[in-house]
Amino acid sequence: MLLTALLTTLFALGAPARCAYAVARDPVAARALAARAYDLYQARSYEKAAQLYRAAADADPDDPAYGYNAARAAQLAGQLEAAEAGFVATLRHGGATATMRQQAQRHLDEVRAALSAVHAARKRPTAGTSPVGPAAGPTATDGSTRRTVGWVLLASGALLGIGSGIVFSGALGEQSSLDAALAVRDGNGKIVGIDPTTASQRQNDINADYALGWGLAGGAVAGVGIGVVLLALSPKTPATVTLWPGGRGLGLHVAF
Fold first, then answer.
1. How far is residue 148's CA from residue 142's CA, in Å, rounded to a whole number?
2. Which pTM value belongs to this model?
């Protein structure tokens, strides 16, 4: 009765803040919260799943799986800072298994690569002040800003491409590991290398990684493509050749 009332209150609040889901230390409540979070995760409601997994971690901090799952759901929800903090906490948790640490480190690398791209994009300079009046036209600052933004987009696209490669590499490794476990069978052909429920959850995680990888790859292509276009449209100063003092040799001045 008490547990039912607790869950009803949690979902009635529906606020994104972590304090809305705070519960006292209670492993039984933690398992109930995690079960509901798993259903939300399966339904791809990652933000709410992350909130409930964090509440489960608060209720039973001795189990590192809740914090790891919260970080994973936050990553898929695009909450990169929360995901980074969660994976770091998992790596520091004394109860985390070697496999969990390996997965947490892989996803932490993915998150940090994505954060680097986001931070680089936020550093784009704003356009300079243009002349006021009907005769105002493009200024030298316009071309300079366009080139700068173009280079920033190229760099961001490259970082997203790296992040995509990390995600795909990890997903392929996880898929190979899962396939190997599924191939272990007894004399009757029954799978004994892995529990079916665990196999299903791992496959869902792998599929989510593939989707994330394709998303990062799309961002990389868009960033590089737009960056190239901006650089191509930027006015360029032609190269000039001048004599050195005294007529000795040539000097090449190039602007881009």
1. 10
2. 0.50
Q: Please check whether residues 152 and 100 belong to one and the same domain.
A: no
- In sequence order, which residues have a C-beta less than 8 Å from that of residue 247 and are 6 or more positions away? none
Q: Rounded to an integer, what distance in angstroms lies between the CA atom of residue 244 and that of residue 256?
A: 22
Structure token pair of residue 117: 């791209």
| Torsion sign across C-alpha atoms 145, 151, 152, 157 | positive
Single-letter residue type at 60: D
Average per-residue pLDDT for the chain: 75
Model confidence at 52, in pLDDT bands (50, 70, 90)?
Answer: very high
DSSP code of 21? G
Q: What is the CATH number of the domain that holds 112?
A: 1.25.40.10
Q: Is residue 196 part of a domain?
A: yes
Say what angle helices 27-42 and 46-59 make with each other, to 10 degrees: 170
Helix (H) or strand (E) holding 240: strand 240-243
CB-CB neighbours of 92 under 10 Å:
12
